[in-house]
Design goal:
Radius of gyration: 16 Å
Helix content: 25-40%
Shape: globular
CATH class: Alpha Beta
Order of helices and strands: HHHEEHEEHEE
Length: 162
Amino acid sequence: MLSKQQRKFRDDFLSPLKQRLFYFNNLPMALISGIRLIYLDEEKSITEVPFRWCNKNPFKSMYFAVQSMAAELSTAAPALMALKGKGENIAFIIVDVKAEFLKKAQSKITFSCLDYGKFEKAISSLDKSNDTVAVTAKTVGKDTDNDDVAIFYFTWSFKIRS
């Protein structure tokens, strides 16, 4: 069950206006490319990215870096939500990325991550300064035909700051 701080974070991040303001201040490329977080709870996180002229590559498909941004956000949102309400000052960063591209991305792509529980469990295991823990989250990108387009694995490292 989500804490009050986690519910507030989720509700704020899912607000279209607050999400755009966050992107403007922190992730301007997400704003330009049209990436949106469309769903977030304890079970899944869903992002989508449209197929439009600024997201294309010369091969008439979506540029892999745009897909990577949307995929990363689908794992970052549950990580951020899991951190809310924790008393410690916890730093986190991506330490590894792996991707499998299965099909040309030529339509809107929707990324789904089902790993919130991994983040919550790992962060809860941190108990003293300089403790670290890593979580590998999987996210699957599907096109408008519901075909798998890409699978990403992001390894996030969490550390209690001293």
